[in-house]
Write a structure and sequence with these properties.
alpha+beta; 5-stranded antiparallel beta sheet; 5 helices; 38% helix
């Protein structure tokens, strides 16, 4: 169960880490694009062809669009269609002049408004940095926890620990409150240590009471590192009675 919860944090953190990275890349790309526009863009006067209003619906707000035409430095005629702020839209007239900004290397990317909204770029940078930092930490922590748990389950020394308490946490998975079982144990040299089960569902955590014995594994090189196992190994079967198959065979021979 603890491994599954760590996997959840790895999955959850990975999704938001990817989201943060995408936002950061978009912000960085926009910033580089604006730098290119500032250095290379050419300004000219074009003509407003049409002005359109696209009404709002349940998925989007009202759009104010302008279709325009201009001539590049080499004499090529180019048309563009761009959404603009309502103030810009209201200040233009059809068949009237309009200021156009374009890149000589890519005239089709012409703009009526020279730059992107820097506020949006900054927001994307901040959200990308925050999500990337926090979720990157979650992913690294989850991966380290998974590797450590698997190492202990594979090669750790198994001992019996004593339950010291069952406590409720402030964490929920799928709206199910999580619990933690705490335990104490002694290593092979007699050193005393404490650990916990990690997040458990109530159905499992409620099986344990203070003073119960439970199986855990610890690292003999770092005895304070332990991993919850849970159930103790079942007792060996009694040998004072023959297995059922042998008993049946014996009765047939007597007959």
């Amino acid at each position: 169960h603890g491994l599954a919860k760590r996997s959840f944090w790895l999955f959850f953190g990975g999704i938001w880490l990817l989201t943060g990275l995408v936002m950061f890349v978009v912000a960085a790309g926009t910033a580089l694009q604006e730098r290119t526009w500032a250095a290379e863009a050419v300004q000219t006067t074009g003509m407003v062809v049409t002005k359109d209003i696209i009404p709002a619906d349940s998925d989007s707000s009202t759009e104010y669009r302008v279709r325009f035409r201009f001539t590049t430095q080499d004499g090529s005629a180019v048309e563009g269609n761009q959404e603009v702020e309502v103030e810009t839209w209201e200040g233009l007239t059809e068949r009237g002049p309009v200021e156009v900004h374009y890149l000589p290397s890519s005239p089709s990317s012409a703009r009526l408004e020279p730059g992107a909204d820097l506020f949006i770029v900054v927001i994307f940078f901040l959200f990308g940095a925050v999500f990337g930092g926090i979720c990157g930490f979650l992913v690294v922590r989850a991966v380290r926890g998974l590797l450590r748990a698997r190492r202990l389950l594979r090669s750790g020394v198994e001992v019996k620990a004593t339950i010291t308490g069952v406590e409720q946490t402030n964490v929920s998975f799928n709206r199910r409150l999580q619990f933690r079982v705490r335990y104490a144990y002694r290593d092979q040299q007699g050193g005393e240590h404490e650990g916990d089960s990690g997040y458990l569902e109530w159905e499992e955590a409620s099986r344990w009471n203070k003073g119960d014995r439970v199986a855990i594994r610890y690292d003999p090189r770092r005895p304070a590192e332990s991993q919850w196992v849970g159930e103790l190994a079942p007792p060996s079967p009694a040998v004072d009675a023959p297995p059922p198959a042998l008993a049946t065979s014996a009765r047939q021979d007597d007959a």
